[in-house]
Amino acid sequence: MIIFERGDPVVRGGEVEVAGRRIAARAIPYGGEAGPPTYRFDPVGRTIVLRPAEGRVETGPADVELWRRAIARTAAGPVLVGPGSPAEQVRGAARAAAEGACRAGRAVYLLDPETAALPEAPSEPFVALFAGIPDEPMWRKLQAAAVRMPSGLLLAVIPGWTTQDAYLDGALERAARVGAVFIAGIAVEGDGESRRRVVAARGLAEPGSEEAFFDRVHHGDWSGEAARALDRLQEGAARRGLSVRPPRPRGEAEPPGNAAAAARLEELADGDPANEHRAALLRAAVRWLDERGRDLRPVVAEGNFRKIFPFDPEIAPEVERALVPPSP
Questions:
Q1: Mean of the per-residue pLDDT values for the chain?
Q2: Percent helix, strand and coil across the chain, each rounded to 5?
């Protein structure tokens, strides 16, 4: 039995990263891991979460204004809303949280939204993320979301499971067919506890497979196999016109140039992970851009942007070009 308990909005501050995109805060419409699905993939922690069949789930309110006020108190930048719940059609918490984040002027990433949670008239602020090892219900939800907003898959990259060529090709083909605009691979953490959960999840997905899979997970080349799969995923996505990262949505309170510049710096940071110092500097600049309340395009036009940009001068031209693209 699952017991739903109505509570206040749960909004967590603290910057995290999902598929190369900065998240400033998380709105959690359903708190607690219980009920279907039996497991899910957490793209923030990069791990499998096992879910008991029974338990308590704290449900946020279906009041948009309560969510708006809670989210408005967090640091500036995009908000991740989710994961969703099969109870959404009755409870309405995820949709209220999404619309509250939108009214707070934020860019909004919807994590594993039920179709009932999709906003009535989605616009620029929303991007839908479906995370994990996709099954038929997830593909159907992704297809429903893709009609209304940019949507795609955060594929859990698990050696011995989702790293095979045939699996990756099938996921890429299906993603393109259902209208996804991106498929981002996220390597699952390789510590002992994460591997134990992966084996348990494989057993739930394919009963009887645990023993053979155990040896592959615990004694194979975990990091090397994941890295090779990510390379193949990127190549396959390029052939099919899919991006390997979600687009950055734009909040209604964000100047468009600022949002575009933040997206460009995120992509630069994600594209050079080996240079940790530069990646950290770029992400700090993204945070600075998200926190600007004014449109920076006039500052660039006046020639004063580099006087106020407090980061490496080598980064400034990239920001300026995103803020004010060159004329064709």
A1: 93
A2: 45, 20, 40
CA distance 112 to 135: 13
pLDDT of residue 328: 58
* Contact status, residue 4 vs residue 91, Cβ threshold 8 Å: yes
Q: Phi first, then psi: what are they for 95, rounded to 5°?
A: -65, -40
* Single-letter amino acid code for the residue at 290: D
Q: Are 259 and 110 in contact (CB under 8 A)?
A: no
Nearest to 189 by CA among 155, 223, 232: 223
Distance, CA of 294 to CA of 296 (rounded, Å):
6
Provide the residue count of the chain.
Answer: 328
Going from the C-alpha of 170 to that of each of 35, 92, 121, 176, 289, the distances in angstroms are 28, 33, 32, 10, 38
* 91-105, 114-128, 187-201: the lowest-pLDDT one: 114-128
Closest CA to 267 of 184, 327, 146: 184
- Closest by CA to 109, choosing from 24, 45, 32, is 24
Instruction: Between 184 and 121, name the one with better pLDDT.
Output: 184
Q: What is the pLDDT of residues 154-177, one digit of tens each?
A: 999 999 999 999 999 999 999 999
Q: Which of 70-84, 104-118, 216-230, 232-246 has the lowest mean pLDDT?
A: 216-230
Backbone phi, psi, residue 97, to 5°: -65, -40
